[in-house]
Structure formats: C-alpha cells, structure tokens
Amino acid sequence: MFVPKKSDKEVISIRIPSDMLKMIDDAAIKYDLSRNELINQCIAFALENLKKENEPDDQ
Fold first, then answer.
1. Cα distance between residue 28 and residue 32, in whole Å
2. What pLDDT does residue 17 have?
3. pLDDT of residue 21
4. Distance of alpha carbon 4 from its chain centroid, rounded?
5. What is the per-residue pLDDT across 7-43, written as a single tens digit (0 to 9) for each?
6. Is residue 6 part of a domain?
7. What is the spatial distance between Cα 50 and Cα 12, in angstroms, rounded to a whole number?
C-alpha cells in the first residue's frame, strides 16, 4: 500500500569548480546515477572514511 510521506532530505546550494562539476557529471553518466545520487554517495563515503585529528594511520 502506498502511503505518502515527507522525505528527510533538505535542499541546499553549494558552489564547486566547473571542472569538478564536469567530473561529477561524467561519473554520474558512467554509473547511471543522477548527479544528486552520486554526490550523496560521495559525501557519505567521505564522512565514513574521514580521518579524525590525531588518529593514527591504519597500516
């Protein structure tokens, strides 16, 4: 059964260099994703793999 509900996402605006946008758009096409889907996945990956200050490198 379909139950309409609001998404927990928010609309934001960011400024990025034109060459980076071209790379994002090319990758989105390559992986058959929307620009939004790719950017969200990239941000999630970066946040999950962000090294905390004073944290030793994994070796």
1. 6
2. 98
3. 98
4. 25
5. 788 999 999 999 999 999 999 999 999 999 999 999 9
6. no
7. 22
Domain range spanning residue 34?
18-48
Tokens, residue 56: 């030793």
Q: What does the alpha-carbon distance between residue 19 and residue 5 come to, in Å, rounded to a whole number? A: 37
**CA 56 vs CA 42, 50, 53: distances in Å:** 23, 12, 9
For the chain, the domain total comes to 1
Q: Is the pLDDT score of 58 beyond 70?
A: no
Model pTM score: 0.74
- C-alpha–C-alpha distance, residues 10 and 27, integer Å: 23
In a domain, 1, yes or no: no
Question: Residue 55, Cβ neighbours under 10 Å: how many?
Answer: 8
